[in-house]
């Protein structure tokens, strides 16, 4: 089935219309349990004696003295807490994907679905780690031509400008390739949701196959929400409590269209005009 971005967004709005609890309320709870809670925890655990902005305004000697007075154990504790917060956020993101997938399918999900990830936290965390490792390694590989040309340009000689130019071109291509690799694995959470017995590596492989020929479609879909994301940032995330359920429900429609051959929301359910 051909993916229609406008139709997917219309059906996402349709599934949100009249849903109880209201998706914006679920989005608010998700925001409180992730972004707000993470910022509070990391702020309390931060061993630095001042904010990064204040530290940058200090002299070199004072900055070195302030940092040297902090026990190494506090930095280790902060690193450990940061890692735990990151893993917790991954599990909560999986729960939000679970809620919005069920929302898109009109299955009447609720706030408890936000915690679906904790029942399979090991697989969710391993999926996130493997995804990060694969993207990181592929990015390193893509950066090799950039490093080679940059090194040749730094040596000087008769063609330094050419080598530096080629290094810039290779860097741009490496960034594009890195994003392309990241898009390969964007559907892995949904495969884990639909196939509870599937392992993280299997979900990543399934996502890679499903996204073959569909990465550009998802990229354009993401671009269509760019304005909403900017407005959410301007409003300090307030608008995001509505935008993110809308976006994730649309993403669920994308998944069902390219993988299952049909949209999540039954046609005509809570019919709304096109956006």
Summary, kept brief:
The chain is mainly alpha-helical and 275 residues long. Helix content is 72%, strand content 0%.
List keywords for this structure.
single chain, 275 residues, mainly alpha, 13 helices, globular, disordered C terminus
Characterize the structure shown.
The chain has 275 residues and is mostly helical. It has one domain. The chain is 72% helix and 0% strand. The model is unreliable at 268-275 (pLDDT under 50).
Instruction: Report the count of strand segments.
Output: 0
Count up the helices.
Answer: 13
The backbone outline, from C-alpha atoms, is globular
Computed structural class? mainly alpha
Q: Level of helix content?
A: over 70%
Kindly estimate the percentage of residues that lie in beta strands according to DSSP.
under 5%
SSE arrangement:
Blueprint: H1 5-16, H2 23-45, H3 52-57, H4 60-68, H5 72-104, H6 121-142, H7 144-154, H8 160-184, H9 188-194, H10 200-210, H11 215-224, H12 226-234, H13 240-260
Helix pairs in contact: 1-13, 2-5, 2-13, 5-6, 5-13, 6-8, 6-10, 7-8, 9-10
């Amino acid at each position: 089935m051909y993916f229609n971005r406008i139709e997917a967004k219309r059906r996402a709005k349709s599934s949100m219309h009249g849903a109880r609890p209201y998706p914006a309320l679920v989005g608010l709870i998700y925001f409180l349990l992730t972004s707000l809670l993470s910022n509070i925890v990391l702020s309390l655990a931060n061993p630095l004696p001042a904010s990064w902005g204040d530290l940058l305004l200090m002299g070199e000697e004072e900055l070195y003295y302030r940092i040297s007075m902090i026990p190494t154990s506090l930095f280790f504790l902060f690193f450990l807490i940061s890692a735990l917060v990151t893993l917790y956020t991954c599990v909560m993101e999986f729960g939000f994907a679970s809620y919005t997938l069920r929302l898109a399918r009109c299955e009447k999900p609720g706030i408890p679905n936000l915690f679906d990830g904790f029942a399979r936290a090991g697989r969710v965390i391993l999926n996130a780690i493997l995804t990060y490792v694969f993207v990181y390694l592929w990015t390193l590989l893509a950066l090799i031509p950039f490093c080679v040309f940059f090194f040749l340009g730094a040596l000087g000689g008769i063609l330094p400008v050419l080598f530096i130019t080629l290094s810039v071109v290779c860097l741009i291509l490496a960034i594009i390739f890195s994003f392309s690799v990241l898009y390969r694995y964007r559907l892995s959470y949904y495969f884990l949701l639909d196939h509870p017995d599937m392992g993280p590596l299997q979900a990543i492989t399934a996502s890679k196959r499903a996204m073959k020929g569909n990465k550009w479609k998802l990229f354009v879909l993401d671009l269509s929400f760019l304005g909403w994301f900017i407005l959410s940032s301007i409003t300090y995330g307030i608008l995001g409590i509505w935008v993110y359920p809308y976006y994730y429900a649309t993403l669920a429609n994308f998944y069902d269209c390219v993988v299952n051959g049909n949209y999540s929301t039954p046609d005509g359910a809570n019919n709304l005009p096109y956006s």
